[in-house]
Amino acid sequence: MQNFFPILASSTLFKGMTEEELKAILNCLKAVPKNFSKDEYIFHMGDTIKQMGLVLTGSVHLSKEDYWGRKTIHAEIGQGDIFAESFASAVHKSPLNAYCAKNSTILFMDIRKVLSVCSSSCSFHNTLIHNFVAVLAEKNIKMSAKIENLTQKTTKDKLLIYLSNQSQLQQSAKFTIPFNRQELADYLSVDRSAMSMELGKLRDQGIIAYDKNTFEILNKNLTTG
Amino acid sequence: MQNFFPILASSTLFKGMTEEELKAILNCLKAVPKNFSKDEYIFHMGDTIKQMGLVLTGSVHLSKEDYWGRKTIHAEIGQGDIFAESFASAVHKSPLNAYCAKNSTILFMDIRKVLSVCSSSCSFHNTLIHNFVAVLAEKNIKMSAKIENLTQKTTKDKLLIYLSNQSQLQQSAKFTIPFNRQELADYLSVDRSAMSMELGKLRDQGIIAYDKNTFEILNKNLTTG
DNA sequence: CCTTTTTTGTTGGAATTACAACAGCAATAT
DNA sequence: ATATTGCTGTTGTAATTCCAACAAAAAAGG
C-alpha cells in the first residue's frame, strides 16, 4: 500500500491529505487493492454494486452493449480517478460493464464506510466526504452543461450556446477553449466539416471571431446578417 | 416549522425520518425557512453559493441567459425537492439564476453543516449524508443516460438506444415508457413527427412493436429490412 | 530546409431532419 | 349524440446535416 501514497495524495478523492492522514483514513476504510489483468472484467451490467473503485495503476473502461449487441465505451477511467461511485450510492445495479484496458490495480472501498463517519478516531472522514461529494457535484455540473449543448437542434445553436457558456465561465468575451475542432465536434456530437462551415458563417456575419483555440464573441445582434 | 414536517418527511433528502429525528437534525443544521414572492430572485448567475435550498412550498425555476440575452428555463423545482446542491458542493459559483415561479417558502441549509457530522448528539446525520449523496448520484445516472441518447446522430439510433435501455432496465423485451410521443421527442431532442415516422419504419421492419406507451423489441437483426 | 503528419477549411451529393399543415382517432365534456 | 380537446400518424417541402474526398495550412520530425 505504501507505494500508492503519491497516487492517492493527488487523487480527486484524497487530495490535500498528508501521508499521515491517508494512513489513518485508509485504515478506517479497510480498503484493499486488487490486481486485474488486461481485458479482465471488474463487474458486468446488472451486477449489484456496493463498492466504488479507485484506479491505482492502469486504466478502466466503462462499456455497454445494447439489445442488439452493439458495444460502446462510455468512459475511460485513469490513474487516481474513481468509478462506480454513483451506482454504489444510488441504484446499486450497474448499467455498465467495467473492465481493465491494461493490467491494473484497483482500490475498492465500501460506499457505506466512505459515507458513514465511524468513530471519532478518524478525524479526516469529513474531508473525505466533502471531496467525494465535490466529485459527484462537479460531474453533475459538467453533464448539465453538456446536455444543454446537445439539446440544441442546430449546429449553429450548439456552437452559440457552447461559446456563450465558455465566455461566461471565463468572464470575458475573448477566451480559449480546451478542444480542437474534431474534439469540439465530438463534444457537440456533430460533423466536424459541417461545424467548420457554421463557424465560418458566424465569423462572416460578424458574430464571432476566432483564431485556432481562441474565440471572441463580438457584440452583434444574432439576427443581423 | 412544525407545519412543514409532512413535506420534509416525504422529501428526497429527509425521507424515511420520523418527526423526532427530523426535529433533531433540523436543530443540528440550524436551517431557517424564508419566504419569497412570485418572480423574486433567490440568486443570480455568478453569485457565490454556499447554501442549498429545499422547496417547502411553491416552485422554483432555474434559468439562464446566454450572451445575447436569450432566456431558457433549465429546471422546475417543486415541493420537497432540493436545488443548488451541486453549486454549493463544488464550483461555488452558480451558472444559473434561481427565482420563484410562485410565492414560495425555501429552507436554506449550509452545505458544510449538511456534510459535516457535528456532534455525537445528532445521530441521524449519517442518514442525511446518505440521502444527499443518493440524490446526487441518481441525478448523475439519469443524466448519463440522457447524454447517451442525445449523443446518437440519427433519430433512429436515439430511439433504438432509448428503447434498448428501457428494456434492460425493466429486464424485459416488452415494457412501457413514461412518456407520450411529444415528451419522448422532447427528451430525445428531435421533431415529434420525424420521430413518429422512424417509429413506423422500425415497426414495418419488424424490429419493434408498439401500442401507445407499450413497446416490445422483437428479436430481429438490425440490418434486416 | 524538406518531408511527413496533423489539423482545418471547402465542396458536392445523398440522406436526414425540421417545420407546417392536416387527418384520424380516442378521451372527455356538454 | 355532439362538440371539444388532445394525441398520434402522415405528407410534402425546405433546410440542415452527414459523408467522403480533397486542398490548404500548420505543426512536428528528421
Question: What secondary-structure arrangement, pairings included, does this model have?
Answer:
Two copies of one chain form a homodimer.
Chain A: H1 5-9, H2 19-29, E1 32-36, E2 41-43, E3 51-57, E4 60-65, E5 71-77, E6 82-83, H3 85-89, E7 97-100, E8 104-110, H4 111-115, H5 125-151, H6 155-169, E9 174-176, H7 181-188, H8 192-204, E10 208-211, E11 214-217
Antiparallel strand pairs in A: 1-8, 2-7, 3-6, 3-8, 4-5, 4-7, 9-11, 10-11
Helix pairs in contact in A: 5-6
Chain A binds a DNA duplex (30 and 30 nucleotides) through helix 8.
Low-confidence stretches of chain A: none
> Which structural class best describes the helix and strand composition of chain A?
alpha+beta
Largest interface: A-B, 56 and 55 residues
**What is the CATH level 1 assignment of the largest domain in chain A?**
Mainly Beta
Number of strands of chain A: 11
The span between the termini of chain A is: 63 Å
Q: How many domains make up the coordinates of chain A?
A: 2
Task: Name the assembly state.
Answer: homodimer
Write down the overall mean pLDDT of chain A. 92
